[in-house]
Amino acid sequence: MSNLQNFWDVLLLFLIPIGGGIPGGVMLAQSRGLEWPIMMLLYFISDVILAFTFEPILYLLVKYGQRVQFLARLGAIMKLMIAKTREHYGQSSGIFALIMIAFGVDPMTGRAVAIAAGHGFVMGWVIAIAGDMIYFTLIMISTLWLKSILGDGTWTMLIIFALMIIGPTLFRRLQKRFQNGASS
Fold first, then answer.
1. Rounded to whole angstroms, how far apart are CA atoms 14 and 8?
2. What is the model's pTM?
3. CA 102, CA 108: separation in Å to the nearest integer?
4. DSSP class of residue 94?
5. Rounded distance, CA 55 to CA 111, Å?
6. What is the pLDDT of residues 158-180, one digit of tens each?
7. Whole-number Å distance between alpha carbons of 98 and 118
8. pLDDT given at position 77
9. C-alpha span between 126 and 52 (Å, rounded)
10. Inter-residue contact 52 to 122 (CB < 8 Å)
11. What are the counts of helices (DSSP H) followed by strands (DSSP E) for the chain?
12. How many C-beta atoms surround the C-beta of residue 11 within 10 A?
């Protein structure tokens, strides 16, 4: 199989908007002999593709959001989601806080929050992609490490995906428990 086909196959997995594409793409890349810098480059390319496909959608939602009742409700829900997200990361509009939102949620939310903070297309996506690349790096390293221990790609993907789903919830619960314990 050609290198171009290997790159394309991995990129397609990374384009899956739900996090399961990351461990799957990492495992596929490793099985095809692609090293971690290539994995990171392909994931970065998937984020750039996301930027150019999501931005027009976001633009149309903002442009027609007040004219179309359904979109106005969707916009209100999005503002509520952004407010809830910012509660977890503080009200700072600084670059680091915005990167952490993209890291903790997803790059589309990171981009939406960057717009709310006044950042344009390029800087907004730099922020969103930076957070997403940090997330990818963490998942990639975890996947490769667990695979080296288990030796089984299927179990590795299932465990990493499960941790990606339940990990944030567990983290928030532990964080609340420690905050409540510290204030008692």
1. 10
2. 0.77
3. 8
4. S
5. 9
6. 888 888 878 777 777 877 787 77
7. 11
8. 77
9. 13
10. no
11. 8, 0
12. 18
Residue 34 to residue 36: CA distance in whole angstroms: 7
CA-to-CA separations, 138 to 9, 26, 143, in angstroms, rounded: 21, 12, 9
Q: Which two tokens stand for residue 69?
A: 């009742």
* pLDDT of the residue at 96: 84
Residue with the two structure tokens 């922020």: 127
d(CA 13, CA 31): 14
**Neighbour-count burial of 63, counting CB atoms closer than 10 A to its CB (0-12 exposed, 13-18 middle, 19+ buried):** exposed
Q: What tokens appear for 126 in the block?
A: 């730099």
**Cβ-proximal residues to 32 (8 Å cutoff; 6+ apart), any chain:** 1, 6, 9, 10
13 against 63, higher pLDDT: 13
Band (pLDDT 50/70/90 cuts) for residue 1 is: low
Exposure b/e, 83-122, CB count within 10 A at least 16 = b = eebbeebeeeeeeebbbbbbbbbbbbbbbbbbbbbebeee
